[in-house]
Design a protein that fits this description.
The protein is an alpha+beta fold. It has helices at about 1-15, 75-80, 295-310, 320-330, 335-350; strands at about 20-30, 35-40, 40-45, 50-55, 65-75, 85-95, 110-115, 120-125, 130-135, 135-140, 145, 150, 155-160, 170, 170-180, 185-195, 200-205, 210-215, 230-235, 235-240, 250-260, 260-270, 365-370, 375-380, 390-395, 400, 405-410, 415-420. The strands form 7 sheets. Strands 8, 10, 11, 15, 18 and 21 form a 6-stranded antiparallel beta sheet that branches. Strands 9, 12, 13, 16, 17 and 20 form a 6-stranded antiparallel beta sheet that branches. Strands 4-1-6-7 form a 4-stranded antiparallel beta sheet, with no helix packed on it.
Length: about 425
């Protein structure tokens, strides 16, 4: 039943030709898990690194003025340990309101970002300048570098990374170097987060003049190993001992590959749209804490809604869904009456089943979340609800499934209203 409901919704939301632009959010998570919200409305949430894809019409979530797109992504340990490919992309488009969008022409891009947890950073040589020498010297801000002799046979190079996008992510994999003038033994690599005062040390390393790779596996870390796995490092230090008589040590190439275990970000997108949605006129619900006095009226509304939708006559449901359907029709360029017909035709087919009924209302299992200041998401802790059916036979199949209607509510003119 859930599959049928999803297919119906996709068809009902398909925009028809009109003068306004349709807005779509496309996102893919591969090798990563994460979530995306738009003005607080959930767009995608995937815990598995191989199941995250969405292409969703989001016109009804966008407002005239500032819109906030937020995201978070996590790279699972299995991806890091096996060094598997991982990436996430998030794109917002304004498109011709014909559906489906022509293949290869998703529309006019409004925002795009790509998250790649594996970072390959070339410190020098580099095309741009983002390094500052703390100890030692740089021929220019893009390299090469000369170590400073800090004691007899003891050399050091300290670099501050000014560009946050070049900071070393919290799970380093390998350091690569070349054109080192003399061997450094008993060397140490120190990764430092100067803002949060965190440091990780990789001891007992050897840097060869011909260059090579230095393994930075977690098990090879010494002091500060517990700092691996979160955040980034904005300083890189190399200490090492050279042979007797060496007066200077030069380095021509330096790079690090690392994995970011988590990302979080947001973007404010300014838009001009002709629409104002019902949810924008809802009361400010704030954090809606458990002792909010409006919870009593919300529970009363849910009881009335549940009692009504338990009945096998969808015409009695209509007043509860008219605001949602009207806004969806405006967002997709359809006539509200035509869209309502699509919805209630499906509901009538569903409720003709002899076994039609909802699960009993369970107030103790309600899970109420504020998506933004004016919209609540109401469901059960363990499932959709309270509008979730008893197991029903799937047409033409021997299996059973539950039908559910997600609930997004605002308090408009003192009345709880289904807005999405």
């Amino acid at each position: 039943m859930k599959l049928i409901a999803i297919i119906l919704t996709a068809a009902a939301l398909a925009p028809s030709a009109r003068g306004d632009e349709a807005h779509w959010l496309d996102a893919t998570f591969s090798g990563m898990g994460g979530w995306i919200t738009l003005n607080g409305f959930p767009i995608l949430e995937t815990a598995q690194p191989d199941s995250g894809f969405v292409s969703q019409l989001v016109t009804g979530m966008l407002v005239d003025g500032e819109n906030t797109l937020a995201w978070s992504a996590v790279t699972p340990a299995s991806t890091i340990e096996q060094e598997l490919p991982a990436t996430a992309s998030i794109q917002l488009f304004a498109a011709d309101p014909e559906s489906p969008r022509p293949q290869g022409d998703p529309g006019r891009p409004l925002f795009e970002t790509t998250l790649e947890p594996r970072r390959k950073i070339d410190f020098f040589p580099a095309a741009d300048e983002f390094l500052t020498a703390l100890v030692g010297t740089l021929e220019s801000a893009s390299g090469p570098a000369r170590f400073e002799m800090i004691a007899e046979r003891r050399f050091a190079l300290g670099l501050s990374i000014g560009d946050p996008s070049r900071h070393v992510a919290a799970d380093p994999v390998v350091l690569r170097h070349a054109r080192l003038s003399d061997t450094l033994v008993l060397a140490e690599l120190h990764l430092v987060d100067s803002i949060n005062h965190r440091q990780v040390v990789f001891p007992n390393l050897k840097f060869l003049p011909g260059g090579g790779s230095v393994d930075l596996a977690r098990e090879n870390a010494g002091q500060g190993r517990h700092h691996l796995g979160s955040g980034t490092f904005d300083q890189l230090w190399i200490f090492g001992s050279a042979a007797e008589g060496i007066e200077s040590v030069d380095l021509g190439m330096l790079g690090i590959e690392s994995f970011a275990t988590s990302y979080a970000g947001s973007e404010t997108i300014e838009l001009e749209t002709p629409h104002r949605w019902a949810w924008q006129d809802g009361e400010d619900l704030g954090e809606f804490p458990p002792d909010d006095p409006r919870r009593g009226s919300l529970l009363a509304f849910l009881k009335e809604l549940h009692t009504t939708v338990s009945k096998p006559d969808p015409e009695e449901w209509r007043p509860f869904f008219q605001t949602k359907i009207r806004d969806l029709a405006r967002a997709t360029g359809r006539e509200p009456d035509a869209m309502a017909e699509d919805y209630f035709k499906f509901f009538k087919t569903l409720t003709t089943l002899d076994e039609w009924d909802l699960e009993p209302l369970a107030p103790g299992r309600l899970f109420i979340v504020g998506l933004n200041q004016r919209v609540l998401r109401v469901r059960y802790v363990d499932s959709e609800g309270p509008l979730i059916s008893v197991p029903l036979p799937k047409p033409g199949e021997g299996t059973r499934d539950r039908f559910s209607i997600p609930l997004y509510l605002s308090l408009i003119d003192g009345e709880w209203t289904i807005v999405r």
